[in-house]
Amino acid sequence: QVKFVESGGALVEPGGSLKLSCVATGFPFSDYGVSWHRQNIRKEREQVAEISSDGRYRKYSQSVEGRFTITRDNAWNTAYLRMTNLKPEDTGMYFCYVRYNVSDHWGQGTQVIVSS
């Protein structure tokens, strides 16, 4: 059974930084690309970053390019999202995602609030 446990979300002031973690179990993590998504208060979901299985390929949405960095540690089955220069519009629930065995799998998410 695929499971993600996200952590690291918090209340942070604009301009601040956070690092989110996502521990994965239930599938061969090192063989699959994974991604981070977020959902805002209007329930709109956006993919913010993705990373290939070996970490060599990374892609970001325009809204976070240059501020967010996605990484992974396959020895620990963990993906990370480093977020800097946070803005109020970055507020939302952040989720890990993988498509495995023709199914979509999501974590329960971790909440990020950017506010002064």
Give an overview of the whole structure.
The chain has strands at residues 3-7, 11-12, 18-25, 34-39, 45-51, 58-60, 68-73, 78-83, 92-100, 103-106, 110-114. It has 116 residues and is mainly beta. Strands 2, 4, 5, 6, 9, 10 and 11 form a seven-stranded mixed beta sheet that branches. Strand 4 (34-39) and strand 5 (45-51) form a beta hairpin. It is globular, with a radius of gyration of 13 Å. The mean pLDDT is 97.
The dominant shape is globular
Describe the largest sheet: 7 strands, mixed
- Give the helix proportion (percent range): under 10%
User: What would you call the quaternary organization?
Assistant: single chain
Note the run of SSEs as H and E: EEEEEEEEEEE
Q: State the separation between the terminal residues, measured CA to CA.
A: 40 Å
Strand-residue proportion: over 45%
SS elements, strand count = 11
